[in-house]
């Protein structure tokens, strides 16, 4: 079974540039999460979906960040105008909620973003 | 809001020695959180090490153990004898009952030397 895949693995931008991150969850997983992990901190939830619906985006900086999951499978996270404070690793995770409500989340390798 | 505290940013231990990594939590919005330890080995993604759903119970995996202590709001990770291959970053996390949203601690980097 293939795991969660993310691309690109690395990105380096100047302030003000845009960037998109792509995530392919494990097949059949209905819930998808995006986390931001600054250096030397734990992952912090940005947004999550169940199928194509956004369930919680309260931690997403809505003026510059957006996330979609149009068919309930792959997802894209976009930063419109990056700032130095966005420098972090962006993690995607997926989970199947059909059985055990405490099922683990499966994480991708992450995209390491550096904004100069 | 909910929070997880890992007091040690880095721990260095000699191979075959015992280990404890501290984790305490505050779950103001969740009555009975689920507790997790995730691990990231060098060059790999985050993966679940162990989880405990019920207060008072212990989880174990790969020689590691953690007990869900509701009174002390703690979930310390322990191992009796560490190996070099245990060198990794360990994250304590708590999750909601329904949607599985996770709140993580900052992580503890474990370095085991021979």
What layout of secondary structure does this protein have?
The complex is a heterodimer of chains A (116) and B (114).
Chain A (H helix, E strand, L loop, with lengths): L4 E3 L2 E4 L5 E6 L6 E7 L6 E7 L2 E4 L8 E4 L6 E5 L8 E8 L10 E2 L3 E5 L1
Parallel strand pairs in A: 2-11
Antiparallel strand pairs in A: 1-3, 3-8, 4-5, 4-9, 5-6, 7-8, 9-10, 9-11
Chain B lengths: L2 E3 L4 E5 L4 E3 L2 E3 L7 E7 L6 E6 L5 E4 L2 E4 L9 E3 L8 E8 L6 E3 L3 E6 L1
Task: Pick out its properties.
heterodimer, A: 116 residues, mainly beta, 7-stranded mixed beta sheet, 4-stranded antiparallel beta sheet, 11 strands, 0% helix, globular, B: 114 residues, 6-stranded mixed beta sheet
Helix and strand sequence of chain A: EEEEEEEEEEE
> In whole angstroms, how far apart are the ends of chain A?
37 Å
Q: Could you tell me the strand content of chain B as a percent range?
A: over 45%
Q: Count all strands of chain B and give the number.
A: 12
* Shape designation of chain B: globular
Q: Enumerate the spans of chain B where pLDDT stays under 50 for 5 or more consecutive residues.
A: none
Residues in β-strands, percent of chain A: over 45%
Order of helices and strands of chain B: EEEEEEEEEEEE
Low-pLDDT stretches of chain A: none
The number of helical segments of chain B is 0
Radius of gyration of chain B, in Å, reads 14 Å
Structural class call of chain A reads mainly beta
Structural class call of chain B reads mainly beta
Mean pLDDT across every amino acid position of chain A: 92
Oligomer: heterodimer
Largest sheet of chain A: 7 strands, mixed
| Major pleated sheet of chain B | 6 strands, mixed
**Radius of gyration over C-alpha positions of chain A, nearest whole angstrom:** 14 Å
Q: How much helical structure, as a percent, in the residues of chain B?
A: under 10%
Globally, the shape of chain A reads globular
Largest interface: A-B, 27 and 26 residues
């Amino acid at each position: 079974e293939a795991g969660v895949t993310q691309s690109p693995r690395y990105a380096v931008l100047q302030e003000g540039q845009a960037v998109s991150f792509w995530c392919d969850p494990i097949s059949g997983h209905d819930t998808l999460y995006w986390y931001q992990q600054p250096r030397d901190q734990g992952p912090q939830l940005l947004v999550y979906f169940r199928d194509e619906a956004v369930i919680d985006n309260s931690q997403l900086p809505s003026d510059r960040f957006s996330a979609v999951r149009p068919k309930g499978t792959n997802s894209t996270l976009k930063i419109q105008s990056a700032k130095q404070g966005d420098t972090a690793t962006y993690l995607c995770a997926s989970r199947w909620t059909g059985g055990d409500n405490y099922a683990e989340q499966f994480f991708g390798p992450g995209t390491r973003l550096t904004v100069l | 809001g909910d929070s997880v505290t890992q007091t040690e940013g880095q721990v260095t231990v000699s191979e075959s020695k015992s280990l404890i990594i501290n984790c305490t939590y505050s779950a103001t919005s969740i009555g009975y959180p689920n507790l997790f330890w995730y691990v990231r080995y060098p060059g790999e993604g985050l993966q679940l090490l162990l989880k405990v759903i019920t207060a008072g119970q212990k989880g174990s995996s790969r020689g590691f153990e953690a007990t869900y202590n509701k009174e002390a709001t703690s979930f310390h990770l322990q191992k009796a004898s560490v190996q070099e291959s245990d060198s990794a970053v360990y994250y304590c996390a708590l999750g909601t009952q329904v949607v599985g949203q996770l709140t993580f601690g900052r992580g503890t980097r474990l370095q085991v030397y021979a």
